[in-house]
Amino acid sequence: MNPIKGYLFDLDGTMYAGTAPIQAAVDFVNRLEATGFPYLFVTNNASMTPEQVADKLVSMGVHVTPEHVLTSAMATARYIEKMTPGATIYMIGEDGLRLALEERGFHVTEEAKADYVVVGLDRHITYEKLAKGALAIRSGARFISTNGDIAIPTERGFLPGNGALTSVLTVTTEKDPFFIGKPEPVMVDIALEMIGLTKEEVVMVGDNYHTDILFGINGGIRTLHVNSGVHGPAFIQEQEKLPTYMVESLDEWTHA
């Protein structure tokens, strides 16, 4: 195998658990930062800006800047830019998605007439927002969802995720969306562009087999499973496709 020249990291369950940092991961990333080793945080969260993600990590002791963050909102905007520069977009989502789209020069409209309907997590969702999205899709707009996460972990428990909101439009329009976030491989190519490495040179680090590990497998890159979050070693060993590596925590990982 080629030497590892960069890392992609998940966040929740890998870098922190809710509001508590996972110290082994914090220390590992800080060592990467101190030596100038390339890395990127890859998150399905489309509601936060890269600045907000970086601020949360900094508050937990991670020496990071917004340039080290790739959200599914950013990846969505980059994907559409390649497909249809200057498109008109009807958006369901929050500030992280809106800013990512506007920074790429898209016109975000409030009308049910657009080139694309883009759905991200919206904790202020209304019937009217969904109605306009459905009308736009039925009128020919391309249907994109930032990610398919059906539930998200919070201090209150698991709450409806973006995949749950997206499913309303899927059912009512009978149209399937194109998903951008993990475990779909779209963000792999975008992440590699951002850190200037090839698939053979990077490793995806995560705790969730269904999102992080399958993201790496689907994207053709090596994977490192850490037992600090959703899935433990017993579950991993039952899977048909296994991660390239598995450790209890990043304290055990010495490849960098």
From TrEMBL:
Binding site for Mg(2+): D10, D12, D207
Organism classification: Bacteria, Bacillati, Bacillota, Bacilli, Bacillales
Alphabetical UniProt keywords: Hydrolase, Magnesium, Metal-binding
Binding annotation for substrate: K182
One GO cellular component, as annotated: cytoplasm
InterPro entries the UniProt entry points to: HAD-like_sf, HAD-SF_hydro_IIA, HAD-SF_hydro_IIA_hyp1, HAD_sf
Enzyme class, first EC level, given as a word: hydrolase
Protein name: Acid sugar phosphatase
Family stated for the protein in its record: Belongs to the HAD-like hydrolase superfamily. NagD family.
Pfam families according to UniProt: Hydrolase_6 (PF13344), Hydrolase_like (PF13242)
Protease as UniProt keyword: no
GO molecular function, one term: phosphatase activity
Cofactor(s) the protein needs: Mg(2+)
Catalytic residues of the enzyme: D10, D12
EC id: 3.1.3.-
Xref: PANTHER family: 4-NITROPHENYLPHOSPHATASE-RELATED (PTHR19288), HALOACID DEHALOGENASE-LIKE HYDROLASE DOMAIN-CONTAINING PROTEIN 2 (PTHR19288:SF46)
CDD domains: HAD_Pase_UmpH-like
Function statement: Catalyzes the dephosphorylation of 2-6 carbon acid sugars in vitro.
Stored Gene3D superfamilies: HAD superfamily/HAD-like (3.40.50.1000)
Organism whose genome encodes this protein: Exiguobacterium chiriqhucha RW-2
